[in-house]
Every structure is written in C-alpha cells, then in structure tokens.
Design goal:
This protein is of the alpha+beta class. The chain has a single domain, classed as Alpha-Beta Plaits. Helix content is about 35%, strand content about 25%. The chain is built from 3 helices and 4 strands, in the order E-H-E-E-H-E-H. The chain has a 4-stranded antiparallel sheet with strand order 2-3-1-4. The protein is globular, with a radius of gyration of 13 Å. It starts with a strand and ends in a 19-residue tail after the last helix.
Length: about 90
C-alpha cells in the first residue's frame, strides 16, 4: 500500500514529534508531506494510532491519501525531487 501523508501542525514541539514518527514509516518529500511506500494495513493502523496520540484535534490535521499502483506511476513533479519510492509497492 502506498500512502501520501500530509499534515498541518500548529505547535513546533508536536510537529517535531510527528515528523520523527513519520520518518519511521516513509520518506519526507516536502516539509509537511511524506510518501510511505511499503505500508501494510497493520503498519498503517499503527501510524494512524500514533498520530492520533500526538496531535491536537482542535488545531492540527493529518491527512492520509492511499494511492493505487497506477496513480503512483503517474505522479509528476516540478523542481527538485524524485519519483516516488515504490519498488516494494505491489498491486493488490
């Protein structure tokens, strides 16, 4: 499973913790965006549970966008960057 995770965190300390947690699941491609390419359902649920404990539900937001294999192959970008890391990504 390939998940694009985007966040908007108000508090710097919380944002640092969110980034640290997300680095264990994926690759940071922008300041508030991570690509998580080898997610299983179990890992995804663990990630969501970890984020739920960290964020302030009144001010912060974390969004999870699952992308199919076809969508990942069609990702485009401008400027610096690289194609999504999807060598472990399998179509289910």
């Amino acid at each position: 499973m390939f998940i694009l995770v985007c966040f908007d965190i108000v508090d710097n300390r919380v944002r640092y913790r969110v980034v640290k947690t997300l680095k264990g699941y994926g690759v940071r491609v922008q300041k508030s965006v991570f690509e998580c390419s080898d997610m299983t359902e179990h890992k995804f649920l663990k990630l969501v549970a970890a984020m739920e404990k960290l964020i302030d539900h009144g001010e912060d937001t974390v969004r999870y966008y699952p992308l199919c294999a076809g969508c990942v192959k069609r990702v485009e970008y401008s400027g610096i960057g690289s194609d999504p890391l999807c060598e472990d990504f399998a179509v289910k």
